[in-house]
Amino acid sequence: MSIESETLRNAFDLINKPRDFDVGDLVTWKDQCMKNASLPKDCNSFGIVVRFEEPTRGSGSVGSNQYSDFKDMVIGIIDEDGDYSEFTAASRRMKKFVE
């Protein structure tokens, strides 16, 4: 098995692993390979789960890398300027952040 196929299989298994958090928990990317948005910045950065919503498509553009990525949660982030922002995310890409 090639390194690329093993990496792809590992990513597939990881994204299909059930989420382990609830509203109010701190979350981060399950792995760097799950990152498809600018925030949280990396696996050491985090946001707080504000609420879950009905899944919506991440993008209306068929060619977008987020077209098939259904957003089913809203997370709150403090950005570099210290401002609080909320954005939608796919919970299957996230895991509980442990301090």
Folded structure, characterized:
It is a single chain. This protein is mainly beta and 99 residues long. A five-stranded antiparallel β-sheet has the order 4-3-2-1-5, with no helix packed on it. Strand 3 and strand 4 form a beta hairpin. The mean pLDDT is 88.
Read across the widest sheet, the strand sequence of neighbours is 4-3-2-1-5
**Oligomer, anyone?**
single chain
Distance between the termini: 36 Å
- How would you sum up the major sheet? 5 strands, antiparallel
* DSSP E strands, number: 5
Unreliable parts: none
Order of helices and strands: HEEEEE
- Shape call: globular
Question: C-alpha Rg, in Å?
Answer: 14 Å
Number of helices: 1
Strand content: 25-35%
Overall helicity: 10-25%
Class based on secondary structure composition and strand pairing: mainly beta
Q: What's the average pLDDT?
A: 88
Q: What is the fold's blueprint, element by element?
A:
Blueprint lengths: L2 H13 L10 E4 L17 E11 L12 E9 L5 E6 L4 E3 L3
Antiparallel strand pairs: 1-2, 1-5, 2-3, 3-4
